[in-house]
Amino acid sequence: MTEHGVYSEVGKLRKVIVHRPGQEMRRLTPSNAHDLLFEDVIWARKAREEHDAFVDILRGDFDVHVMHIHDLLADVVATPAGRSYVLDRKLTPNEVGINGSLILREWMDELDAPTLVQYLIGGITVDELPSDLRNPARKAWESNDFVLPPLPNQLFARDSSSWIYNGVTLNPMFWPARRDETLHLAAIYKFHPEFTDPGVTVWWGDPPDAGYGNAMLEGGDVMPIGKGVVLIGMGERTTYQAVGQVAKALFDNEAATRVIAAKMPADRASMHLDTVFTFCDVDLVTVYEPVVDTIRPISYYPADDGGLSVTMETTGWLDVVEDALGLDDLRVVPTAGDVFEAAREQWDDGNNVVALEPGVVVAYNRNEWTNARLRAAGVTVIEIEGSELGRGRGGGHCMTCPVLRDAVYD
Known about the structure:
The protein is built from 14 helices and 20 strands. The protein is an alpha/beta fold. The chain has 2 domains: 5-70 and 152-405, L-arginine/glycine Amidinotransferase, Chain A; 72-148, Arginine deiminase (Pentein, Orthogonal Bundle). Helix 3 (69-77) crosses helix 8, helix 4 runs antiparallel to helix 5 (93-109) and helix 4 (80-90) runs antiparallel to helix 8. The radius of gyration is 21 Å and the shape is globular. The two termini are 24 Å apart.
C-alpha cells in the first residue's frame, strides 16, 4: 500500500511530482510566449540541465522519491481506461472540432504511450499530423498552427493539484492555457498504480473538466502548515469562490479546522502566495515585505449550521500565521538588498524556495542577497542555477508538487 499526504510546508520531503522541460519549451516563440504565460523564450536544453541538477539534489542528497509527470502519464495512457479518460476529455468537439474529435482521436488512439504524452504536453502542429489528416487541415490552417497547444507551464507542477493533509484538490486554474495540466494530474491520480492502492481522496475539483465558473484555484496559493491550518492566497489566480468551497470540503471531511485566506493584490509579480511568502523552517518564513505587509487575512471556520464562519482578521498576516501555529515568535527573513535589489530578487523567485526538511531549502543562485540573509538566520541554502528555469517566473516551490511530506507538529 502506497502512502501519500502533505502535513506541513517544511517537514521531511519524501515524495514529489515534477516535470522535466521538454518539447513544449521548444514551442515557445516571441510571438506566442505571452499567450502561453511566459515573458520570454527559454533555452530548452539548458533548462533541462538545470532541472536535472535540481532533481539530482532531491534524489541523491535527500533521498526524495521523485516522479516525473511525463513518465506517470505514459504509464496511464498505456492502459485503455487511462487513455480513454484523457482523450475523451481532450479531443472534444469544443476543443478540436467535430472531425477532429473523430479522426484525430482515431489516430491518437494508435500512438505508443511515450509519443502520445509528448503530444499531449508538447502540442501538435498541423505539419505533425499524418498525411491523410494534414492535407485537408492545411486548407484551413497554416502548417505550424497548433491542433493541440503546448503546455509549457506543466513545469510548475505545484499548481494543477494540491495535497492538503491526507487528500488532494484538482485545481481549475485561472488561465485557459493551463487547464489541461489539471486533467493530466487527475488521470495520474485515478489510474496510476502509485495512487490506486488504496486510492486518492479528492477534496474538491473532480471532475476536472466540469465548469467551475469563477471558482479558480492554483497550488502556488495553497499551504497546509500543520495543526489543522491551511493557508490559501487570493490574488491574481485564486478566487474567493474556490477558497470557500475548498474550506467547506475540508471541514466537512474533518481534514482541517481553519483556513486562512491571504487577500493580495492581483499582480503578475505576486501571482501566488508562494511568490512572496514561503516557510524555510518550523518557525521561519521568507517574505517580500511590500506585498506581505498589504495582505488582508480572512479566517474560515466550520459553522454550527454546516456552512462557513468567516472572520476578517484585524491584525497583520504574519501575526495571524504566528498565532494560528501557536508560536512565540515567527522569525521573518525579508527579501534582501536595497529597494531595487529586493524587487529584482522577488521577481527572480528569491522568496519561492522549497524546504527539503526543517531549515534546509533550495534556492536559485542568482538571489545572492536573500540567500545570504537566509544563511545568516541559520537556514541551509542549497543553490541551483535558474537562468532558464526562472524565466517562467517560478522557483523550487513552484516546480514541486509534494505528495508525501512529514508533519512537524504532533
